[in-house]
Design a protein that fits this description.
By secondary structure, the protein is α+β, with helices and mostly antiparallel strands. The chain is about 30% helix and about 30% strand. The strands form 3 sheets. Strands 3-2-1-6-5-4 form a 6-stranded antiparallel sheet, with helices on both faces. Strands 7-8-17-16-13-14 form a 6-stranded antiparallel sheet. A hairpin with a 4-residue loop joins strand 11 and strand 12. The relative contact order is 0.10.
Length: about 400
């Protein structure tokens, strides 16, 4: 066993045995003691995906960095290590902290003047990956990582919505998925959920009526009813029917939940879809954006014992699907034209080279410039799904 392997294994053991709130201090001790680092910062991306913020328990100097105008931000966006040389001769290494496609943030390491990080770059990246997995586990027992993700206070409704989400991105050999909610710190009823198995990806895109706590409570009920049905292993038509009954039993038709249910067979690209409300689906194929017309069915909870029927749709390798809430496609410009008529298609085309995880935030930035008022009337949700096709068995 080489010295480098022993060093990495010791680092891994230290992170796995650290107390949940001590992970930032532990990774600093490991990298300073074994890798010659002078300082170490764990930076997590905020809910709005605009800045990388330090975890407060991290020892040493810390700072907030923009995602779109910093070396750490380049590492976060490209999902690759970025090495920058400072004017003082020090070397700054920025390493993505990502777990199964979910982009958490960046580990920034400052090395002493004269250091040559190239030999240790792969090992440092592996340490950052282990750290990411440990942060996900540690979040069950401490709030320090949740606090680091917010640059301002969340409304209670937004707190409920973000806690309901699975993640903002995930990826596998056949697919990549990304999503973003806005306004991130005051979101109301829009939400998304997904689950991946060996052969299927199930996705829900929801839009609960109302505002504030009422909208969040409705969405929480609907999402958990869908999860309960999904975890029973039943088809999406039955999932929709059972969730419809749960929402109707609580609200008796006075409140309802718009939802798009998607069941993607990962090897074949066969999709079953139920359009129960307002979310829209668009496809980018060979550089052309097409709105996919779906059979409109009743939102969940509008009437008692509604039956739902899944439609079939076939994806092709390289297809990109975009799902948007009505807070995106119905937003008017000063001239009155809804964003979803033509401008949304141009935004999707302009982001075609971005990975799925980056597309939703980019589309929402375009929307912000298009809107005829600084503050939105409704929350907005964009979900991006790429399907790469069946991958060869190694």
């Amino acid at each position: 066993m080489t010295d480098n392997v022993k060093r990495f294994m010791a680092a891994e053991r230290a992170l796995r045995s650290a107390a949940p709130h001590q992970l930032p201090a532990t990774v600093r001790e490991v990298l300073c003691g074994q890798y010659g680092a002078e300082s170490v910062d764990l930076l997590l991306v905020d809910y709005g995906a605009t800045v990388l913020q330090p975890v407060s328990a991290m020892a040493g100097p810390s700072r907030t960095l923009p995602v779109h105008a910093s070396a750490a931000g380049r590492s976060f966006g490209a999902q690759e290590p970025v090495v920058a040389r400072g004017e003082d001769g020090r070397t700054h290494v920025h390493l993505p902290v990502t777990v199964r496609g979910d982009r958490l943030g960046v580990l920034s390491v400052t090395l002493a003047p004269g250091a040559r990080p190239e030999a240790d770059l792969a090992e440092l990246a592996a340490v950052a990956q282990v750290l990411g997995h440990e942060v996900v586990v540690a979040e069950r027992d401490t709030d320090i990582y949740q606090r680091a993700r917010r640059k301002e206070r969340l409304t209670l409704a937004a707190e409920m919505q973000w806690q309901l989400l699975p993640a903002r991105s995930c990826a596998g050999p056949q697919y990549a998925l990304g999503a973003q909610l806005e306004p991130a710190y005051a979101v109301f009823g829009d939400n998304f959920d997904w689950s991946v198995s060996a052969d299927h990806l199930l996705l829900y895109v929801t839009n609960g009526m109302g505002e504030g706590i009422e909208a969040s409570l409705l969405t929480n009920l609907g999402i958990n009813a869908l999860r309960n049905a999904r975890r029973a292993g039943i088809p999406i038509a039955d999932q929709a029917a059972l969730a419809d009954q749960a929402v109707y039993a609580q609200y008796r038709g006075e409140a309802y939940l718009s939802v798009l249910l998607v069941d993607l067979e990962l090897d074949t690209g066969r999709v079953q879809i139920i359009d129960a409300g307002s979310p829209r689906m668009l496809r980018l194929r060979d550089g052309t954006v097409t709105t996919i017309g779906l059979e409109a069915q009743l939102p969940l909870g509008m009437f008692e014992e509604t039956d739902y029927v899944a439609q079939d749709y076939q994806m092709q390798p390289g297809d990109r699907l975009l799902f948007v809430s009505d807070g995106v496609h119905t937003v008017p410009a000063p001239g009155g034209e809804p964003y979803g008529d033509h401008t949304l298609a141009r935004a999707i085309t302009a982001t075609r080279l971005l990975p799925a995880a980056d597309v939703p935030a980019a589309v929402l930035r375009e929307l912000q410039g298009y809107r005829d008022r600084p503050e939105p009337d409704d929350d907005a949700l964009v979900v991006c799904l790429d399907w790469f096709g069946r991958q060869p068995t190694p």
